[in-house]
Amino acid sequence: MQLLSPIAEIPVWGMRFTYKEGPFETEGILVRLNDTDVRAYKNECRHLPIPLDQREPAELWDASGKHLCCSSHGARYRPKDGLCVDGPCKGSHLKQLPLQVVDGEVFLDTSQIGGFFNV
Ligand code: FES
């Protein structure tokens, strides 16, 4: 298990973190849906294998603040399940990462992270 953050300290625009995927240091994003519900995704667009947020963390979101948004070509993803609802990869999903919440703290369940052949 890898401690990511207390839920209460996750910024409204989400936060980045790094984790190991096989031998590779990989970046994830952690978003808070409400006071008890969180999601984490690999920070990689499903259109091209590049990070969603090429710029500031606030730009993880579209102008409405309702969808995660890729800053390259504007793919928009639902925060609750990572479904791409608009853009060149519509219908695909961000890679969701396994979390556990214990006493208000969010952990990445590293025992369920696949190796680099399983990304
Ligand atoms: S790289 Fe994300 S929409 Fe094209």
Keywords:
mainly beta, Rieske Iron-sulfur Protein, binds FE2/S2 (inorganic) cluster, 36% strand, 4-stranded antiparallel beta sheet, 119 residues, 3-stranded antiparallel beta sheet, globular
Order of helices and strands: EEEEEEEEEE
CATH classification, class level: Mainly Beta
Q: What is the CA-atom radius of gyration, in angstroms?
A: 13 Å
Number of strands: 10
Structural class designation: mainly beta
Instruction: Choose one word for the global shape.
Output: globular
The domain count comes to 1
Report the sheet with the most strands, covering strand number, pairing sense and barrel closure: 4 strands, antiparallel
Helical fraction equals under 10%
CATH superfamily: Rieske [2Fe-2S] iron-sulphur domain
- The side-by-side strand order for the widest beta sheet comes to 2-3-4-8
- Assign the CATH architecture: 3-layer Sandwich
Figure out the total of helices. 0
What is the fold-level CATH name, i.e. the topology? Answer: Rieske Iron-sulfur Protein
Small-molecule components bound: FE2/S2 (inorganic) cluster
